[in-house]
Amino acid sequence: MVAYGIAKARAMANRTDWNERTEITKAVITWFDADYEYELEIENEDRMDNEEFTAWVEENAESLAKADAEENGTTFEGIDRIDFKEDYIDDDALFDEAYEAACEFEWECETGR
């Protein structure tokens, strides 16, 4: 197994944008009825890439808003806007997860577990 520091240095050398990339983590659909505006937050739980998540939300926004209107006991009139929230991707945390998994796998192979 490659030492943690060496493995991380190699991983960082292969990415010029380490900890600089962003991902869309949620969408906020603002919809309205005859009297009020409502906000419906949709989390990117499946960690779809930005284009895929954006397309999915835009395609399903009306049906999601209608379901939210029914849940709120009101009548859906229309969608005002869709905003997307972005967060930075934590490459350090992703690396740590992958490194731990590789260490666990190597340990299991060596011990026959």
Attribute tags:
113 residues, alpha+beta, single chain, three-stranded antiparallel β-sheet
Summarize the helices and strands and which ones pair or pack.
Layout: H1 4-13, E1 22-32, E2 37-43, H2 50-71, E3 78-88, H3 91-111
Antiparallel strand pairs: 1-2, 1-3
Would you summarize the structure shown here?
The protein has about 110 residues and is α+β, with helices and mostly antiparallel strands. Helix content is about 45%, strand content about 25%.
Question: Your description of this structure?
Answer:
The chain is an alpha+beta fold and 113 residues long. The chain is 47% helix and 26% strand. It has helices spanning 4-13, 50-71, 91-111, and strands at residues 22-32, 37-43, 78-88. It has a three-stranded antiparallel β-sheet with strand order 2-1-3, covered by helices on one side. Strand 1 and strand 2 form a beta hairpin. It is elongated and about 65 Å long. The two termini are 18 Å apart. The mean pLDDT is 92.
